[in-house]
Each structure stands twice: as C-alpha cells, then as structure tokens.
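Recap from last week: sequence in, structure out.
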Amino acid sequence: MGSVGAGRWDLVFPSGAPDRVGDMFATAVIADAVRRYDADLAQWVETYRDWSRQYRSVFRGMTALAASAPEASVGIASEGLRATRDLLRFVTGHTVEPLRGVDIGSVAAVDGLDIGTARGKGKAVRRLEIPFRGAALTEGSLQRKLTDWRQRGIVEPGFAAAVERVIDHPEWLALPGFRVVIAGAGELTPVRPLLRWGADVLAVARPGPVRWRQLAAEAEAGAGVLRYPLIDGEPGADITTRFPALVHWIREHLGSEVFPVFGRYVARRGPGGVRLAAALDLLTADLLAARPDTALAGTGSPTDCYAVPESVFAQAHSCLRERGVRGIGRDVLRVLTRSALYQPNYRTVVTDAAGASWSVADALMSFQGPNHALAQRILRWRALSARAAGHPVSYTVAPPTWSRGVPAQLAAAYRGAHRFGVEIFEPETARTLLAAKLVADLNDPTPADPNPESLFAAGAAHGGLWRLPFEPRSLLPVAIVTGHLRGLLHLDERDH
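Predicted structure tokens:
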C-alpha cells in the first residue's frame, strides 16, 4: 500500500473520453454495488446507452432493492463504496495512482495546516428559537407549528418529536461534551446555529475571505468556539486538494476529552460533486477508524429518491382517492400527456424481511443530473455503513429551501409549490431546525429500526414532497408555469 504527501493532490476519474468518463464511472460504480443482490439490474446498468436519461429508473430500482432486506441495504452500501475507491485515481505531482492503493494511516504530515480560532463573547442560549417569517418560534408557538407541519405531512413524526425533545431540554443546545467537525459552509450547515448555542466547532470549507470573515464574526457574537484551518495565514482548505493535510489537522484537534462528531454538509455540481463526495468519504473512513467513538452527521437532498414506509405512501394513496372533481381534469391531462403530468405516486410496493411494506419516494429532477444522484448516494452509503458498524448516525432529509444555489427551473416551481401542499423553507429556518434535530440525535438517539433504510425515512423534513398523491417530477411543469405566473403578478410563495 502506498502513501501520499500532504501537499496538493487531485482526485480524478479513470481515463476515457472526456464527455463520457463521468457516466462510465457512475455506471461502473452502480453496477458493482448491486451485482451481488440483483445481477439483472447490474447488467441492465452496464448496457445502458443513455445514462443521463435513464439513471432515474436505476436509482429508483436500487433504492427499492435496498429496502427489501437489511443485508441488501448495507451490502449495496459497502460494495458501492468499495467500487468508488477502486475506480478513482489520485494525482500528486506527475504521479497517478489508484485510490485503493492509498494507505490513509501512513499519510505523511508534510506542509501541515495551522489553526485559527474565534471565541464567542455572547451569552449562552437558554431556549430553542426557530426564525420563521420575520418572527421567532419558541416553546408553545414552536410546538404548535411542529404539530401543524406533522399533520400536513411537511415533516415526518420522528423529526417533530426530535425537535420537541430539544424544546424540553435546552441544556442540550451547546452540545456539552462534544466537538463537532463541520465540512462545508453552505446555507444548510449547522455551523451558525451551533455557534449561537455555544458549541465547540471545527469548520472545514474552501478558502474565501468573505465567507470566513462572516463565520468568525458570527462565532464571536455567539457563545461557542470556532476553529478552522489556515494555509499561509489564510482560512480555509479544499477537501479535494488538501486531503492529506486535513486528515492530520482534524486528528490533531479532535481532542481526547470529548466525543467527536463529523458532519458532512458539502455539495458541488457536476462531476466535481462526485469527486468531492469520494474525498469526503475517505476522510470519514479515516476518522471513524482513528476514533471509533465518532458520531456521523449529515443532511440528504430533498431532490433524491428514498425508501419510505407504508405510513407515508398510504397517506399519498388516500389523497389520490379523495381528490374530488378536480381529479377528473388531472386524469384527462395525464392521458393526453402520456403520464408526463399527474402520474400517481408510489406504484410499486416491496416487502422487507420483517414483512413491512415499503415504496420509493422519487423526487429526482432531470436537470440536476446523475452526478447529483451519485454524490448523494455515496454520502448515504457511508451513513449506512457507519451505523451498521455501531457508530451513532444523524442523517436528516432536508426540506426544499430558498437557497442561493437553487436552479432557475426549481425556483419557479417553488413559487407554485404551495398549490400541491409543499412548503419551501427559508434557509435560516431550515438550518436551525436541522441543527436542533442533530442536537436531539446526539443527546437522545432513537433506537434503530430493523430496516436500515429507516435511517433516512424516520426523521425526514421533506417539505411535503413524500406525501404527494402524484410523483413530484410529474407536477414540475405545472408548478413551473404557476410559479412564472406568480412571478409576473409579483406574488411570492413565501407569503403562504
């Protein structure tokens, strides 16, 4: 097994035609992941001619397969992670080597990173407050809103129950006894709420003076402590190019007196997102091996596909039966558009080893592409593997959010989403709720369900996408048109 220096390095796909190498990598990984559990599906993947158009049905089938048995769920995750590592290459200087040849434990600590620190000067928070439409939800008002969201199918009961536990235990907010490593500084990372609450945070994100000035200022205004890597005196480090140095930096600053938490909240578009997910997985595997007491945390994209239990799809089917006169018009549109519009949701049901019924909530959007789906799946595979190995895992499906990176098509659909019972969250509301869910999971974890896929289903905050009577993708054109009309009329879904 080789070792690699701690300077710059690059993670790359195997050689091939530039316009096809990403697709070739993805199909090879997925085929290897499922081969042991469904050889026909693996062969189907390998013979695809147009991966960019057909990947949705593959991820949907793989998700159903994972829900069918615990050994399939954990096994697909293990095989998928192995295939990812086997197929990728790393480049250092003029050397290109298979990633599987990297011995993480022998990574040389050359050109190590320094550390910067920002300490909070504010008062410790004494209760959970959720920013919501210009106000703050607390205690009774927050509990009422959680009840409303649960009853309307905006969040799953497990999510609401977790946040309610934090309302009852505000002393958990500062996460005493934990040190949280947060990879990523996007709008849904829990860095900002945790710093307000007084938590001890190691933050890893790409360099960017504006970003780091804002984070340091928020840390000083809060009650916690923020530590971050420095390169030549400048804050920030890119995981994909500074991986070896970050391995040692995180190990050095974890602290033996606290329980470490590794939170993964990074995402990029295109093939770079897959490479980032793979590099992050290497970092995760090293940390879990070096510190077996490490908990793993992260959020899942709402525009992905997940296995869901009968309580979810039964409500969707019930809504479909009770849709009234309007349903006749939708049926006509479905026939005229050959099911492109108003396709009924949850048409396939699988039974797991314990006799429970599951289906697949498919919110994959074609304009996001297969790289988005694969990057998300790599993160999910590690979460499943970590839980199977006995590590505490907090993984929450995030709600659709008015974030800066929302594609134009999706933003238009968001403006019309309320017509279908979907709620779009402001970033500050979403990240504070997700941070509260993390606090609950770390302080009072719920028992694991026999089906590993419940890790994603039980405590999700999907904004209502899962309980729609129609597949989200078949509502997208109508939502986009409605959203554009609302934009022309200067109306905003955020007012609803």
